[in-house]
Amino acid sequence: MKTLTNQLIKVIIQNRVFTFCLGTTLLFFLCKGILYALIGSFVPLLFIITILSLFLFSFIKTSGTFARAVTMWSFLLILWSATRILLSFINQFVKHVPEGHIDGQLGLTSNLVSFTILICSLYMLNNRKSIKTCI
Amino acid sequence: MGFFDNEPRKGAINMRILLILIYLVVTLISCQRNEVNQKLIATDLSDEKAEYQQQIVSHLSGESSLSNNTIINSRWSEEERNLAAKYLRELLQQLNIEPQKQNYFSPNLNPAIDLLIGPYRGTNVYGVLPATKQSDEYIILGSHYDTGKRNAPGAIDNATGIALIYSVVKEAAEMKSRDKNIVIVFFDQEEEELIGSKAFLNLIKDKGWNVHSVHCFDMVGWDEDKDKAIEIFSPTESLRSIYKETALVHDIPINEIVIDPIGYDRSSTDFDAFVPSGYNVIGAGELFYHRDSTPYKDTPDDTFMTVDFNYLLSTSDLIADIIKKLVTR
Fold first, then answer.
1. Pairing mode, strands B181-187 and B230-234
2. How high is the ipTM of this complex?
3. B205-251, pLDDT tens digit by residue?
4. pLDDT grade, residue B318 (50/70/90)?
């Protein structure tokens, strides 16, 4: 356990920007999961728990496995943010969504969140092979 | 030599820092909430029932501006609904009732959508007119304040319901004796699967209120054939009876729809949210199911000019009498 913690700290120090990107995206979805769990919907929390377990498993396995986990997570995030940006674009310029609740979530703040996640995921995808994790 | 080599690199770093700063500033600005701090109702509403009902519908449907030249054009977007909620809180203050907010979050109807976007969030505005004697019974009067479509002023749907409740409570507040508490609630997000009224159901349970009956009013401003008729729908026989008896005195025809609560799962008006929970609930309004209802529902033409204020007045008089009877029984 101690070795794992030390290794984790070492990797974090060596790859600060990567850690920031991965941490930001995971924390964002963890917060989302907790918020939804508090109001009775558990799908987002189950989703992020699965992702976190996957990262933990891949981190202790090999660098290659970790890189594959990062690739998968990055693709999911790219898909997620691109869908939101596309929806926002359609709502703004093509056809307005009829629901006020969805319209309210496709504004400037939402786009900034989507772009932040997109930038983070592109960075992670680009640098996934530079992370050396194995103990 | 080294100095010249570093210049373009320095410039690129500066540019990167500048872009990050711009991004952070834009993010911070976008996170700010635009809250109107000034009062929206600067002077008291008229004491004349017909006049104040017109003032309320006029304010809520953007026909007239509010005290700081703010206009509520529609009550569809979150920003517009926040403004309307602030107006409604001030409306309760006009009745000397302390306004309360129920801010709620609710998951999306499809759990997969929860991953993509945030939850529903809204605000129910409510207040309690206490009984003059010790009582644990509550009569709930509710109307929704949101509008169904972008740019729909929502004069009939449902500024009229709000004006009706305001007048009923104003009259009830003037009674010397009330044996029951009256809760006034303006629901948010009725047009989006009754999210507001469903959230209010949770609040009722949390508060542990002993609910005598729930009365929901939706669209009370259209009467093409001028017969003053209203439509009521309820699973509760006693409530239907009192509405019919009182309507007879007022010479108002009643179109009755008997609701079977078993397996009831409609979601078209706030009334529907209370039926499955077994409350004594009744819905009332213009003849939506009997085809004498505004053709402008959920359109930009649902304006102040289309409201039949005589109809609103006659229905309000009827409901006021019914509530007075119930509150003293």
1. unpaired
2. 0.86
3. 999 999 999 999 999 999 999 999 999 999 999 999 999 999 999 99
4. very high
Residues present in chain B in total: 329
Min distance B268 CA to chain A CA atoms (Å): 15
User: Given this model, what pLDDT does residue B119 score?
Assistant: 94
Q: Measure CB to CB from residue A102 to each of B23, B117, B149 and give the nearest one.
A: B117
Contact yes or no for A98 and B76 at CB 8 A = no
Structure tokens at B35: 């809250």
Residues of A in contact with B116 (CB under 8 A): 80, 83-84
3-state secondary structure chain A: CHHHHHHHHHHHHHCHHHHHHHHHHHHHHHHHHHHHHHCCCCHHHHHHHHHHHHHHHHHHCCHHHHHHHHHHHHHHHHHHHHHHHHHHHHHHHHCCCCCHHHHCCCCHHHHHHHHHHHHHHHHHHHHHHHCCCCC
Chain A hits for B114, Cβ within 8 Å? 36, 41, 43-44
Whole-prediction pTM: 0.88
Q: What is the pLDDT of residues B132-169, one digit of tens each?
A: 999 999 999 999 999 999 999 999 999 999 999 999 99
